Each structure stands twice: as C-alpha cells, then as structure tokens.
Amino acid sequence: MPQQQPAKSPEEKKKRAIKSVAKYSGMAFQLFGACLAGVFIGRWLDARMHLDNPTWAVFLTIFFMLGSLYSLYRQLLRD
C-alpha cells in the first residue's frame, strides 16, 4: 500500500518552482549560446577564407544547434 506524502509548504513549492524555472531557462541559454558560438566562429572562418557566401556560418550554426539539442535531450531524459 503506497504511503501518502506529506503536504508541501508554500515555501517548498516556491523553491521548487524557482528551481524548475532556473533549470529550463538555463537550458534555453545553453541553446542560444551554442547557436551564437556557431555564428561567430563561422563568420570568422568565412572572413579568414575570403568566402562571399556565409558557408561556414550556416553550417556551424546548424551543427552547434543540433549538438546542443542532443545535449538538452539527454539532460531531460535524466530528469
């Protein structure tokens, strides 16, 4: 027979909510930072190689974004 858990106090609920918000907003910033890194590194490579089209910028942005999404997926599976 499962035991009932004691009721959570309002302070505990508030701390839990803040912790959840911080965790998920951190994940959003991680995705944003990865995309930004892809853009800046790609633009630097494009300028270094004297390319007219933003080939590296597009490729690295997509690559970093996919890598970050995979990382976020793995983090969510652990929770």
Provide a descriptive summary of the structure in words:
The chain has helices at 10-48, 55-78. It is mostly helical and 79 residues long. It has a domain at 30-78. Helix 1 packs antiparallel against helix 2. The mean pLDDT is 90.
Topology overview:
Elements (H helix, E strand, L loop, with lengths): L9 H39 L6 H24 L1
Helix pairs in contact: 1-2
Helix content percent band: over 70%
> On the 0-100 scale, what is the average pLDDT?
90
Distinct helical segment count: 2
Low-confidence stretches at least 5 residues in length (pLDDT < 50)?
Answer: none
**What is the chain-wise order of helices and strands?**
HH
Distance between the termini: 26 Å
**Beta fraction:** under 5%
Give the radius of gyration: 20 Å
How would you describe the shape? elongated
Number of strands: 0
* Biggest sheet layout: none
Structural class from helices and strands?
mainly alpha
Give me some keywords for this one.
80% helix, 79 residues, elongated, 2 helices, mainly alpha
What is shown here, in short?
By secondary structure, this protein is mainly α. Helix content is 80%, strand content 0%.
